Amino acid sequence: NYNQEVGGRRSGFFTNDINYRFLSNGDPASQSNYSAAGTSNFFSFISQADYALKGKYFLKGTLRNDGSSVFGPQHRYGWFPSVGAAWRITEENFLKSLDWLTDLKLRASWGKTGYYGNTDPRNQFNLYGGSAATSYYDINGTSNSPVQGFTAVRLGDPRTGWQEDVVTNIGFESVFWNGILSVTVDRYKKKAKGLLFPVSLPAILGGATSPNVNIGEVQNTGIDILLGSKRKFSRDWNIDATLTLTTYKNKIVRLTDLNYFFPSGYGVQTVGLVRNEVGHPASSFYAYKIIGLFQNQEDVNKSPVQDAAKPGRFKYLDADGDGKITDEDRVFIGNANPKFTAGINLGINYKKFDFSTFCYGSFGNDVMNIVDKVTTLQGKSKKALYDSWSPQRPDTSVPLPETYVNFSTWGPPNSYGLEKGSYFRNKSMMLGYTFSKSLLQKMKMEKMRIYVQAVNLFTITKYTGLDPELSGSSAAFGLDIGNYPNSQKQFLFGLSIGL
Q: Are 20 and 104 in contact (CB under 8 A)?
């Protein structure tokens, strides 16, 4: 891979007319330009061996050697083997007499794969640069002759290497009554070793880009279940349906240098809210737990000592029981990982008509609604206007709206905004009609089909934000910071023609 780029910018244009948007028409004082180039290389050696005996015993092995120039010289190459075995039991004599059991196969596998984590090719190097605003200095004492200087723009780590994902899987595949019912079950365990994440840098190092480093190990365990059915009821009717269920349990097993770390870069309202700690799931919410609102001064006086406590403000849990609210009282309040996910695919055909739909659901995960937290606590929402605390309305969970930031309002990470993020969504629903060949022959066509499709037709959820299906990184997800929703309804009409 090789890339080269060049660019320039100016601002302060005298008009917004697009016909005059040229660099030469901008303010010369705002001019800047740049050019850069980069290169990286990837090499892989792959080998595979398969063995089968009597159609019932199977063995497969692979061996990969991958190399990438994004890592330092001592860590560029990695060996990634895998092995799998299967036994088709229905080929054994003692099961051949069972007409209702069409196929039954036991299988197990173990494998290791490498991942370079979108690591920048410059990750291994310390790089320096600068501009007149950041690194030039008038060292000679004359205001018109600044001397060029350099600042660190990237800190490198040549010790960074491949992330290794080790997956162990054991399960079975089965088919009953010639496909009327199929069942596949897998028990999986995945360990990601040498996780690649940007390291957090102390502020004393300035604005230098941090390198990707191998920080530890994360483990995922669960069960995958697939139920399917293919059935032809008559000449005109047939159905094809599948249901998938996946249980999911995530745990951070080990971190290299610390027992935990806080990911950054997700806005001021999320700082310190997500804590990745050994023994806990990734992207766990860690904050002061709100146990109510202070109702009056007597309530403030008899409660543990809390900075800026006042009627109408948050009352936090004294987790360590020492009579005062400190940083030691922060606790794990939520888990962004779902307990299980489910998907449904359904296809029905009747004569020339076809109908299909796909639904997906995520269940048991928590979501932090940062948008609601900020707008409500600053008094900029309907909830703040009609449901906020007052002496006449004490039975509410919405505090007194305040623009003043302090420990008992919306200053520190707390549990306000924590919601259940479970949802079930119809991703797609389609109805189509395929014209008969006899009609198309007269039109000199091979195939013609018309269809209507609905996307995101409905979503069932108790989440109060725009969309419970949130994006994020592997270190911090489940945060609604004003994410653009992925739930817009779409209605499509289509025509496909084959000549």
A: no
Amino acid identity at 109: S
Q: What is the pLDDT of residues 333-374, one digit of tens each?
A: 999 999 999 999 999 999 999 999 999 999 999 999 999 888
| Distance separating alpha carbons of residues 57 and 155, to the nearest angstrom | 52
**For 253-265, how does the pLDDT look when each residue is reduced to its tens digit (9 = 90+)?**
999 878 888 876 5
User: Which three-class secondary structure string do you get for 267-298?
Assistant: CHHHCCCEEEECCCCCCEEEEECEEEECCCHH
d(CA 375, CA 386): 13
Could you give the CA distance from residue 212 to residue 158 in angstroms, rounded to a whole number?
10
pTM of the model: 0.83
End-to-end CA distance of the chain: 40
| Residue whose entry in the numeric block shows the structure tokens 């920048």 | 120
Dist. CA 409–CA 288, nearest whole Å: 11
Write out the two tokens for 214: 């191998």
**Could you give the CA distance from residue 79 to residue 67 in angstroms, rounded to a whole number?**
9
Is the CB of residue 190 less than 8 Å from the CB of residue 219? yes
pLDDT, one tens digit per residue, over 186-220 is 999 999 999 888 877 777 777 788 898 998 899 99
Strands 479-480 and 366-369 come out as parallel
Tell me the C-alpha distance between 137 and 135, whole Å: 6
For residue 223, the cross-strand partners are 187
What's the DSSP call for residue 437?
Answer: H
Task: Specify whether the CB–CB gap between 388 and 377 falls below 8 A.
Answer: no
Residue type, 306: Q
Smallest CA-to-CA distance from 432 within 330, 324, 332, 348 is with: 348
DSSP assignment, residue 386? H
CB 312 within 8 A of CB 293: yes
Residue spans of beta strands (DSSP E) within 134-280:
151-154, 163-176, 181-193, 196-198, 212-214, 216-232, 237-247, 249-255, 260-261, 274-277
Location of structure tokens 């030469």: 24
Q: Which long-range contacts (CB under 8 A, 24 or more apart) does 377-386 make?
A: 377/401, 377/402, 377/409, 377/410, 377/416, 378/402, 378/403, 378/410, 379/403
